[in-house]
Request: fold
Amino acid sequence: MPLIITKAIVIKAKDYGEYDKLVTLFCPDSGKLTVKARGVLREKAKLKFAVIPFNYGEYVLASKGDYLSLSNCTQIRSFYALNRNYDVFKCACTALKVLDVISGEGNREVFEETLNFLTALCESDATDGLLLKYMTDMLELLGFLPDLSGCVCGKNQGKLYFDSCNGLTCECCKGESDTLIAPKQLRIISDSLHKGYAEAKIGNEAHESCVRLIKDFFNAKIDGANI
Ligand SMILES: [Zn+2]
Reply:
């Protein structure tokens, strides 16, 4: 029986039959995997922890014909601190939603970025600042980040607008539904790309509207996304 040994983060899990769960993992090399976890709903199950969302561990999976079965897991981090308040938990769940919609195949950078984001959220309540950093980094890693230096036509003077499909537009190129983007918002988004999570943990002011813009852009770019 072939075994797969891989690091993974739990994206989600649902009950399957009386005592089993179907757990969705995100792995650095294999991307999203659905795994049957037998008996984890039994009272004394040893691997209960291995199907809890956000659990990060080294998983041992057995390939059983047309499905994978959870054979063992060594926990690396539970990320339990994400449960400390609702805002932090909701913000962290955004990362799981992102992994769920993007992860056809593995991506080590996406995996590392997500671990860094969750680690920073365990230590700070600056949810908007951290989420903005995560979302812009993810767009960049996936090759979807728009040019933030000016309109698609090359113009970077005057008022700039944000088109959730194409990125920045100028007064001449803008479409009807494009929203005006303030220079300060643009600066906050650009800055979030270049600073580390340590800095993102500090500032949280005025990030909410930027997060909304980046989420809209993400949803427009990624099929099936509703972040
Ligand atoms: Zn233009």
